[in-house]
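User: Hello! I'm new to structural biology and keep hearing that structure can be predicted from sequence alone. Could you demonstrate with Prokaryotic-type class I peptide chain release factors domain-containing protein? Please show me the input and the output so I can see what each looks like.

Assistant: Of course. The first part below is the input, the amino acid sequence of Prokaryotic-type class I peptide chain release factors domain-containing protein. The second part is the output, the predicted structure written as tokens.
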Amino acid sequence: MRGFSSSFNLRSSSQQEKDDKYDEEDLDWARSWISEANVNKKIAKLPPSIGVITFSRSSGPGGQNVNKVNSKATLRVPLDKLGLHIPRVFFEALKSKGSKYLTDGGDMVISSDSCRSQLTNTKDCWAKLYQAVINSVRIPGKTSQGQRKRVKRLMQISDAKTRDLKSKLSKRKADRRGGPVGEW
């Protein structure tokens, strides 16, 4: 019976420890925050007062417009202020793992110069902030009671198969030795 495998795609213990760090209320808030933001076209309802927006001259091609107009938008949001408006799950993930936008001083600095309009670049900065928050951690889906029972039953079946396999292999080895284990 070589190559026998009864593995199920279960979460690793480290993933389970990370999920157990947050209670169900935190995860529900994170799920509702994401779904509410998805309804609002991928932009979360964050108050503009938590960040400071500055404008500067854009770089790259564009001729006279680039040289004269301050269209590049830079958004600076202190992580502590951001943490008051986002779910704790995201805040702790940003704090521990960081983000490419996170500075050593604890601020999120996001810039955009993709368009010739200040307003469009400002909206793009807020959208990038939202995406950075969302991508900081994977929120597990809500598991129904039926699914939990099913997984528990599958794990019990897997454990039983493993025990049976081990006892068969043990018996086979004992038969090769010519007697039960311990009669040497």
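User: So the tokens describe the shape?

Assistant: Right, they're a compact way of writing down the 3D structure. Reading them back into a model, for example: The chain has two domains: 13-134, 143-176.
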